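Saturday, quiet lab. Running sequence design on the structure tokens for the scaffold JK sent over.
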């Protein structure tokens, strides 16, 4: 489904990704781990076309993803969450989620400005879909509340709802457990497992919380200094000496 090959990104003298390759099958939940600065977020930024790759290829459903314009990525069925949250603080929770649904709005500028009945019907349908997501993610009670001021765990769920509103097939999660309590991490893992089944998602998750990664992922890829040092089942990667030396010794 996703085939990354020889992916290389350089920033001046730093090689943030050095000929990285891996594949993701439909329905996989892949963990992407590695020390700070290993290139994990850079990889996400390449997959969403925020960063330009210097070398390599990324094939997504047979298409050349690196030839796709950044604004067209969501329409290709790829959505992401951000490490530091990508929400609009002053907008309501519902409107933040509706921002994610934007690509499904078909109305053009003129028909939207004239508020034609077809536009109102479309808006109502998107709103109903957003409300169903808010219900599912236990956010209905705060739907009309501005995102600003809500607890961090709630903001993380809003961020997830916003990404899901785009109806992605590939979901990229950047440190979804960062800042969550132990209990919240367990709840998030259960929610993600269920959503993956319900919405037939393929997921790549960058995360430092090893209990979460090893408990939920089918496969784990480990990066160090921009290079892939391991790729296998959670058990294989956990027992890999290079991974233990580079990362798990410090993370555990
Ligand atoms: N826009 C940029 N300009 C210059 N250097 C960058 C840029 N983005 C990333 N880098 C560098 O690329 C390397 C990889 O960074 P990246 O953020 O991808 O790591 P990471 O594995 O996501 O780390 P973390 O776990 O801390 O989020 C780092 O050395 C970083 O400083």
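Result came back. Writing it out in full:
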């Amino acid at each position: 489904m996703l085939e990354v090959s020889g992916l290389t990104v350089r920033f001046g003298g730093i090689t943030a990704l050095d000929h990285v390759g891996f594949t993701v099958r439909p329905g996989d939940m892949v963990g992407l781990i590695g020390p700070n600065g290993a290139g994990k977020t850079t990889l996400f930024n390449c997959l969403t076309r925020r960063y330009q790759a210097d070398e390599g290829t990324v094939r997504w459903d047979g298409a050349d993803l690196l030839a796709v314009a950044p604004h067209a990525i969501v329409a290709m069925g790829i959505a992401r969450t951000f490490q530091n949250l990508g929400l609009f603080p002053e907008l309501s929770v519902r409107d933040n989620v509706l921002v994610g649904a934007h690509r499904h709005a078909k109305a053009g500028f003129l028909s939207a400005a004239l508020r034609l009945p077809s536009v109102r019907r479309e808006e109502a349908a998107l709103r109903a879909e957003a409300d169903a997501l808010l219900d599912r993610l236990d956010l209905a009670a705060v739907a009309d509340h501005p995102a600003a001021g809500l607890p961090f765990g709630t903001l993380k769920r809003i961020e997830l709802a916003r990404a899901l509103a785009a109806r992605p097939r590939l979901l990229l999660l950047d440190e979804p457990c960062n800042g969550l309590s132990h209990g919240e991490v367990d709840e998030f893992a259960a929610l993600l497992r269920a959503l993956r089944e319900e919405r037939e998602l393929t997921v790549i998750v960058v995360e430092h919380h090893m209990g979460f990664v090893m408990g939920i992922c089918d496969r784990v890829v480990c990066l160090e200094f921009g290079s892939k040092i391991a790729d296998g089942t959670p058990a294989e990667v956990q027992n890999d000496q290079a991974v233990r030396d580079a990362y798990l010794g410090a993370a555990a």
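Notes for JK: Residues 31 and 101 are 26 Å apart (CA to CA). The chain has two domains: 2-77+168-251, 91-153. Ask whether to fix the surface positions before the next round.
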